[in-house]
Amino acid sequence: LPANLPPEAKGKWIAAQNARNPKEKIQLFQEFLSAVPKHKGNERLRAQVKSKIAELKREIAAQRSRRSGSRSPWVIEREGAAQVVLFGLTNAGRSSLLKALTNARPEIGSYAYTTRIPVPGMLTFEDIQIQLIEIPAPLGSKSGEMTTSQEGLELIRNANGLALVVDLSEDPIQQFRSLRLVLDDIRVSVEKPDSRVEILREKGTGEIRIAAYGAKLSCPPERIRELLQSYGLRNALVRVYGEADIEDVEDAILENVTVYKPTVLIANKVDSPGAREKLTTLKEEIQPAMPLIITSCLTGEGLQEIGSQLFSALGLIRVYTKDPNEAKPSNHPFVVPAGTTVRDLARNIHTDLANRYRYSRIWGPTSKFAGERVGPDHVLADHDIVEIHAE
Ligand SMILES: Nc1nc2c(ncn2[C@@H]2O[C@H](COP(=O)(O)OP(=O)(O)OP(=O)(O)O)[C@@H](O)[C@H]2O)c(=O)[nH]1
Ligand SMILES: [Mg+2]
Predict the structure, then answer these.
(1) Cβ distance 340 to 321 under 8 Å?
(2) Which residues fall within 8 angstroms of residue 169, CB to CB, at 6 or more apart?
(3) pLDDT digit string (tens) for 73-83?
């Protein structure tokens, strides 16, 4: 646990956050590293920052190749409500799923490693779209150690969620374990942690808000505020789930954390002989459970479930805004995290709107009656309609 870094290191961290370009950022992260005492408690932090530097270097290389006209296929801008990586061993059927679910037309082959560069596609779920990206399968023997390219791992770390794909015509448990090992290595967790601290940087609010969702904080909120301020953070929302102490908050500031990715497991090729018999043991393996979707690209079984399962696993909700002068709400929802309040939504639409906010009327699941008047702390749910009244 890194605790109370020297002020010099904090200063470098602040400067790195505010750096205007990747080159400057690298320089400042390097200076940060020299200012962090080299003891065991800081090892993970140092490793984390080193991999950030490596990522920035690749970003610079990608920028260069873009400028020279050759776009890197490994850099994929998010489109739609969320970006989800299809991660599985070769031949699990990721390309077949991508083809069945999206507009993409990836190559499908019965031989190994057909897909060699990432392929994105858009999946339509009701009135929104989710971007799916197939990345090349990790290399290695099925029982031995797996390796995935750095660029592939970055796509995983940057994604909003993961769909792990295992093959029911093979040993799905062993496949699941191999995928988990690769993810553990890069400090990506597929299980929702009991406790965690999230720090969301906000704009122009001038305050540090602390939202503890039934959490046990072992330090006074004032200390948290002081700590954030010592890192130059003045506008932020700190969300605490479960139990947390001041070190957890500092780890979150320094992004020295295992990142949790909402994940579903797709067990594909259920049409294969003996496939269904493997499901019981597979379900036992994934404790605590994550959503399991049983599919076949051959028969189409389970495919229509994927959109809704992903949407709910991602922890997203759709909110429709309505102009006070219009009879109907907008057709295009805002897709926001569950837990979003009316105030968060207003801020999401426009900082100014949050400042001029007066009250809202809502229709839908969280309203007691149609057009109920609610305050800024009202928590929204999927399918709510919100009319914001401002000064
Ligand atoms: N029986 C059966 N075969 C499938 C299913 N889905 C995919 N396949 C077959 O499995 C093989 C591999 O499918 P792909 O979709 O190319 O697999 P991938 O995961 O993209 O694999 P690589 O890109 O090669 O690493 C192909 O021969 C597919 O036709 C399925 O649900 N059932
Ligand atoms: Mg493929």
Answers:
(1) no
(2) 269, 272, 273, 275
(3) 888 999 999 99
Alpha-carbon 214 to chain mean position: 23
Compute φ and ψ for 162, nearest 5 degrees: -130, 145
- Per DSSP, the residues of 73-100 read TT-----SSEEEEEEE-TTSSHHHHHHH
pLDDT tens profile 106-158? 999 999 999 999 999 999 999 999 999 999 999 876 556 778 888 898 899 99
Using CA atoms of 226, 228, 233, 237 in order, give the dihedral in degrees to the nearest 10. Answer: -110
* Ligand 1 neighbourhood includes 129 CB (under 6 angstroms): no
Q: How many other CB atoms are found less than 10 A from the CB of residue 106? A: 20
Tell how far the Cα of 285 is from the centroid of ligand 2, in angstroms: 25
Cα distance between residue 293 and residue 73, in whole Å: 29
E strand or H helix that includes residue 201: strand 196-201
- Residue 189: DSSP 8-state: E
Instruction: Determine the residue type at 90.
Output: T
Ligand 2 centroid to Cα of residue 96, in Å, is 7
Long-range contacts for 63-70 (Cβ within 8 Å, ≥24 apart)? 63/22
CB–CB of 195/248 below 8 Å? Answer: yes
Here the tokens at position 14 are: 């602040």
3-state SS string over 103-172? CCCCCCCCCCCCCCCCEEEEEEECCEEEEEEECCCCECCCCCCCECCHHHHHHHHHCCEEEEEEECCCCH
Residue 135 identity: I
* For ion ligand 2, residues whose CB falls within 5 Å: 95, 114-115
Ligand that lies nearest to the alpha carbon of residue 110, given by its number in the listed order: 1
CA angle (150, 155, 161) in 5-degree steps:
140
Q: What is the mean pLDDT of the chain?
A: 91
Query: With pLDDT > 70 as the criterion, what percentage of the chain qualifies?
Result: 98
Ligand 1 proximity of 88 Cβ (cutoff 6 Å): yes
| Ramachandran bin of 109, using left for φ above 0, alpha for ψ from -120 to 50, beta for the remaining angles | beta
What is the number of the ligand closest to the CA of 109?
1
Give the span between the Cα atoms of 305 and 344, in whole angstroms. Answer: 30
